[in-house]
Prior knowledge:
Blueprint: E1 2-4, E2 7-9, E3 12-14, E4 21-26, E5 31-37, H1 41-58, H2 63-79, H3 81-92, H4 96-120, E6 124-127, E7 130-136, E8 139-143, H5 149-163, E9 166-170, H6 176-188, E10 196-198, H7 203-212, E11 218-222, H8 225-235, E12 241-245, E13 251-254, H9 260-272, E14 284-288, H10 292-304, H11 323-338, E15 342-345, E16 363-366, H12 372-375, E17 382-388, H13 391-399, E18 406-410, H14 414-423, E19 428-431, H15 454-460, E20 462-467
Parallel strand pairs: 1-5, 8-9, 8-11, 9-10, 11-12, 13-14, 13-18, 14-17, 16-17, 18-19
Antiparallel strand pairs: 2-3, 4-5, 6-7, 7-20, 15-16
Amino acid sequence: MREYLKFYIDGKWVDPVEPKTADVINPATxxxxxxxxxxxxxxxxxxxxxxxxxxxxxxxTTRGQRLEILEAVLVQYEKRQSDIGDAIMEEMxxxxxxxxxxxxxxxxxxxxxxxxxxxxxxFEEQRGATRIxxxxxxxxxxxxxxxxxxxxxxxxAFPALAAGCTMILKPAQLSxxxxxxxxxxxxxxxxxxxVFNLLQGSGSLIGTALSTHPDVDMISFxxxxxxxxxxxxxxxxxxxxxCQELGGKSPFIVLDDANLAKNVAEATSTxxxxxxxxxxxxxxxxxxxxxxxxxxxxxxxxxESVTVGDPKGNCAMGPVVSKGQYNIIQQYxxxxxxxxxxxxxxxxxxxxxxxxxxxxxxTVFVGTNDMVIAREExxxxxxxxxxxxxxxxxxxxxxxxxxxxxxxxxxxDVEQCRAVGRRIRAGWIxxxxxxxxxxxxxxxxxxxxxxxxxxxxxxxxxxxxxxxxYG
Length: 471
Ligand code: TAP
């Protein structure tokens, strides 16, 4: 049993102002795996005051001082990687290989990238007689979800530290452990008191207290569209910057010259990774009508070969994060059946032999782009295959969505892939695969308004000042 009952405020582990705890449930067993404290507005006020006080000095540190601290954080992170991986497996159900692998790797990858960017980042430049100076925005509230818990914190906290900001992190109640260990890492690295503060608790209470707080300068939020909108409304009266990284319903276009069986199989198994709980998942698979039969065969085989099971064991997919998420996904599968989509793999209920734990069958439908299952973010292992007539039609379907987070194109003709990629109205386009920590990550349309990762993540945490008559 884990017990994380203290918050990290002003460089110390402190009790909440009023004791209140909540159980954390292991989604693989439905059993209690530990307890956390839940904060209230008095805890928020303490954390914001600490961050405000620390901003005076942290914002004035040199690039060299911040690099030294970030390098110390990396050393401590690398010492705790296996603890972080275990925590992620236990809190949100990622298979051990994934939690210890990609989840943990994303944290250190972002940190190394931030260090690399900070070495050369231009905080000042001369433009004619004007000096442009980029300064830290101030006290930032970082509100994060449970789906890639360390990644989501890393893309906010590390660039914020590098930019000279101070912060209060509020992770999701469903994934509190990895955040606590990260706070231990930050403490062990010697980050000065008040620069990084951690509170646990409900979004509707402490998330709202942070969003409305007059002494918080910026909110960086990743999660659902509805909460993103609420935060923006709550933040409006104090004119805070609000950066939103929201959901997606991203198209994966397989072009007609592609190795269809291979690409469809890869797209299907990738989409099922992390139990489909990835905002940038290619959850609409667009294939040429003329090759639909082959696509169905490849998608069915790929979905049926995804091994679902206990995250501690050797499986490709664990449970989804919670009972609530399980129920939402089941409702969407039912909706797909009701609206006449053709089920080609998976379906309602748990996979055979898995009676406890929030396990979902890797599910594939063939449907049309007007169906609810093709329009709303399901956030589970549910893929919709959609046929297209020609490239124009594929691009039209790809862009016929409220979202614009990601898109994927695969095909043999590289120039054609590039041309199609350019036409997708989304912020992150994979052309025959590819991964880059320096690429900007963020959405068009209702997928958000910010850009994280690499150098782009720095800009979120900076104000731009013009000193006229400088030169
Ligand atoms: P959200 O409700 O959006 O939660 C994300 C974070 O926001 C959590 O830390 C949450 O706190 C906090 N929060 C909730 N209400 C808040 C408020 N009024 N003010 C400030 N912060 C608030 O996501 P969820 O419930 O975990 O998942 C619901 C759906 O959101 C999913 O089905 C999925 O579609 C989508 N989702 C998208 C993403 C990405 S990366 N785009 C990630 C997760 C979920 P709590 O600890 O109280 O939850």
